Structures are given as C-alpha cells and as structure tokens.
Amino acid sequence: MFKRLSGFLLACLAVITAHAVQTETVLYRQGDTVLEGYVAWPDKANRNSPAVIIVHDWTGVGDYVKGRARQLAELGYVAFAADIYGKGVRPASGPDARAVSSQFGGNRPLYRARMQAALDWLQARPEVDRSRIAAMGYCFGGMGALELARSGAPIVGAITFHGSLSSPTPEDARNIKGKVLVLHGALDPAVNAEQVRGFQQEMNNAGVDYQFIAYSGAVHAFTLPTAGNDISKGSAYNANADRRSFAAMRTFLDEVFQ
C-alpha cells in the first residue's frame, strides 16, 4: 500500500513540476530544399534556455518524434524536431523509408548539411542559449546526431538511440567538441558487434568523452512501440530499455547543460 501511494505521489509531483508547453510547425531551408520541422518549448523559456535537436527515424517527422519533442519541452528544454528529408517526404512503407534514408546514409555531407540547417535555425531562436545545444536521434536519426558532432559543430552533446554507429570518415571524430552518449540494444542485428568495435575505436582514437550503454534483451528500435514485441524480427519495443534509456538521456543532458 505504501509503495503504491509513494508511486502515486511521485507521479503527481512529476505532473506538477512539468512545464506547460507551446508547439509550432515551422518551415526552413537547406539550399533550395524546403524543410518542415516541429518545435516545442516551455512557456517560461527565456534567452538562457538549453535546446535539443531531435532527429526522426527513417519514417520522417511524425507523431513519434513530435511527442518526444514535447516530452523534452516539459523538462524545460527547447526541442526542435528537425526534418532531414524535406517537406512532404514522409515514407509510408519500409521499402520507401529504406530508399529515402539510404540517400543520406550514403551521402554524409548532405546529411550533415541538413543537420547544420537545423542547428542554424535553432541558434536563431531568441530564447535559446547558443552555448547549450545538444543533438539526439532515433535509429536513422541517431546517425544524424553523430554526424553533426563529427562535423565539428558547436554542440555540447550528441545522443543516439539504437542508431547506426558507422562512419566512412572515422578520422572526423577528432572534430567532436562535446560529449557522446550511445544507447544501444545489446542484441541489435542492425548495429552488430563489428560496428560497435569500430565506433569505440573511433572514439578512443580521437579521445572523445563518450558513454556506451547496451541494454540486455533489446534489439533494434527498442524505444518505438510501433515496432511490436517480436524480437526475432530484429526490431521490437522493449519497455525496460525505453525507460532506462530515457533516464540515461536525462542524466546526460543535466551534465552537458550544467
């Protein structure tokens, strides 16, 4: 009884302390391409507010990443769900998503340019503290957070949730200015042991301050409820890994934004 009551009180406290949030769909550009992002911010945001770029998975900007943006805004951050694909490009099937996402996985300079456009837009927001910006992403988006860091952009942290860790130019890790957090499914077939070893060697060689957390029993897409629960498919939701990785993200952001 006491445990249930304590849990209820903690839940009430979380609701009380959550920030009221405003949201807006915004258009911006990278070169000639029109991009459509989504920004969420706390009502009481001021010029000293830390900010986070959030990058979508391979389906593009949708309800999931918008929900994550609102979660971060409730924690007190300005959260910008960046659009990598372009306005109206929202793949409706796995094959379509693979085709679109591969255009960026195979062209890292283009991916970095789209990430830089998001950073430029966010830095121009009057309530954002330009010295306290981080980037994070899910699956395909995790690659984007790492690529922005590898580009030498002035971000204080990069977080990847079950994202690709590969890099065609591992020497670029020397450009990383902030800290890195990798949240990985220990059984993820899409990011295998060889890729993990290569990433860790890349970070170690460059002297990057990074953390690597692997969640037992978790495969690819472990934060996505729409992935289902059949781990034999290689992608599945894992409630424990979702909860633990979100907590790890919060601790990391507290550290890099202090």
TrEMBL record:
Pfam families: DLH. InterPro entries: AB_hydrolase_fold, Dienelactn_hydro, FrsA_esterase. Keywords: Hydrolase, Signal. It comes from the Bacteria. The lineage of its organism: Bacteria, Pseudomonadati, Pseudomonadota, Betaproteobacteria, Neisseriales. Residues 35-256 form the Dienelactone hydrolase domain. It comes from Leeia aquatica. Gene3D superfamilies: alpha/beta hydrolase. Transmembrane segments: none annotated. This is Dienelactone hydrolase family protein. Residues 1-20 form the signal peptide. One of its GO terms (molecular function) is hydrolase activity.
